[in-house]
Amino acid sequence: MNNTPAIVALLATHVTAFDGPPHTTPDGPYVAVFDDSGNGRRTHYDAQTDRVKWTHRVMAVARTRDGLRWAAQQVRDALTDARPVGGASMLTEQSAGPVLTDGPDGDRRHSMTITYTHTTTRSTP
Asked: Other CB atoms closer than 10 Å to residue 105's CB: what's the count?
């Protein structure tokens, strides 16, 4: 089962966080978590699939580059080496994308995506 709500809860102690895109755009810095449906893994060559690898893309967004740097640091402080649920491996940062700038004139936003992975047993919710 998906662990995104647990990851959003970890982030919410540091920065405004959403499971997917927000319904309305917050004024201050925020993060949005996007996930996948998991990917089965074997821990032994001749065994059945017993682990699921999850990928979470955490998009940090802010009006200023300084605000974006702050939000990105909050993501790292909250998630790096954390365990989102019992039985899960620690979250590991896999990549960080470039700073992108987009939006209409007068409401430009800077964003950056940080990708994390972790594994759980197949039976872990």
From this structure: 5
